Amino acid sequence: MCLKGAEKVQKTKKDIKVHINHDFCKRCEICVKICPFDVLATDPDGYPEVVAEDKCTACGLCETHCPDFAIWIEVDGKNKEHPAYPYLRMDDRMPNVWCPGCGIGMVFYSIIRAVKDLGIPKDKVAMVSGIGCTGRMPGYADFNTLHTTHGRALAFSIGLKLANPELTVITVLGDGDGLAIGGNHLIHAARRNVDITAVLVNNFNYGMTGGQVSPTTPQGGYTTTSPYGNYEPDFDSCELVKGAGANFVARGTTFHITLTDQLIKKGLQTKGFSFIEVISHCPTYYGRFNEMPDPFDMLNWQKKAVYRAGTTPREGRLPIGVIHTADHPDYMEILKQRTGMIK
C-alpha cells in the first residue's frame, strides 16, 4: 500500500562479482556449503564455481570463512583484488601450507581485518609466533615479524615491546605452544600486564606434530595419544589469564568470525595485556579422530559447544564474547614511573 504523499524510494541493485583464485584454493568446500543462497557449486575437479551470481547478496560468509584467501566479493567496483592481499607476502610465501579447511587462515584474516579497520600502518605492527601450525602465520604477514622458539613467543614479544613501545605487538599462539611449554610465559605476561595483544588459536590438539593431546583437548576427546579418550580435565585459558591479571580477556570462534573480528579490535585498542582465545577447527587430526573430518561440520559443531557470555551458562559449553575487562596500569606506565623516581 502506498501512502499519499509518501516518497517512493528506488533501491539500486548493487553490481556484485564473486572472484575465485584457483591457485590458492585447496578445495575444502567451506564456501560452497556456507553460502545461504547456493551461489556456488563444486565443479568436477572439486573447485568452487560461481553458478548463480545474481543471487549473491555480498554477505561475505564465503570470503571470511575461506582459510586460504581464495575467494572474495567485489561490490560496485570495490575490492577488485582480495582485501587481504596487500597485507600478505604474495611474491614468495603464498599460498599457505595449512591443511585444506584449517581454521588458522580464518583467524589470520580476522587479525588483518582488525588491523585494517583500525587504520594501523603495516610498519607499525609486529607479529610474533612460536612453533606449531599457528606459528606459520607471521611468515605470510607483511608486517614486522618474528618466528621464535616453541613456547617463547611472549618472552620475545615483551622484549620487543620494551625496546620499541610504539609498535603494536600481536602474539599468535597455538593451544600447545601457549598453554603447555609456553604456559609460564603466558601467566607472567598477563601478570605484568604488558601492552601486547595475544591471540591463541585453540584447535584442541598439537596439529603440526601429528594430532597429540594438548592442554585444551576436551575430556573424552580422541587424539593420537589419547586413543581411548582424553581422561585429563582441559584448561580454561580465559579464566587462567583473567586470574593472572590481564586487562582484556575474550573468546571467539572461527564460526562466529564477525564476533572474533570485534574482539580482536577491542583487544588491540585496550591498554595493557589483551588475550583473545579463538576456538578453531583441525579437520585433519582432531576432526578426523572425533568423527568430524569435514571442516564445515566442525564449524557447525562450534555452535553447539559455546554460549554467549552474559547469558545463562550452559553445562559443558564455553562462553564466547568479552569475558573480563580491567583498567590496571600497564607495565610501561609503571616502568616509566619507577625510572622517574630513580632519576
TrEMBL record:
InterPro entries: 2-oxoacid:Fd_oxidoreductase, 4Fe4S_Fe-S-bd, 4Fe4S_Fe_S_CS, THDP-binding, TPP_enzyme_TPP-bd
Keyword annotations from UniProtKB, A to Z: Iron, Iron-sulfur, Metal-binding, Oxidoreductase
SUPFAM superfamilies in the cross-refs: 4Fe-4S ferredoxins, Thiamin diphosphate-binding fold (THDP-binding)
CDD domains: TPP_OGFOR (cd03375)
Record carries keyword Oxidoreductase: yes
The keyword tRNA processing is assigned to this record: no
Biological process (GO), any one: cellular respiration
4Fe-4S ferredoxin-type domain segment(s): 16-45, 46-76
GO molecular function annotations of the record: iron-sulfur cluster binding; metal ion binding; oxidoreductase activity, acting on the aldehyde or oxo group of donors, iron-sulfur protein as acceptor; thiamine pyrophosphate binding
Alphabetized Pfam families for the sequence: Fer4_10 (PF13237), TPP_enzyme_C (PF02775)
Name of the molecule in the record: 4Fe-4S dicluster domain-containing protein
Organism of this sequence: candidate division WOR-3 bacterium
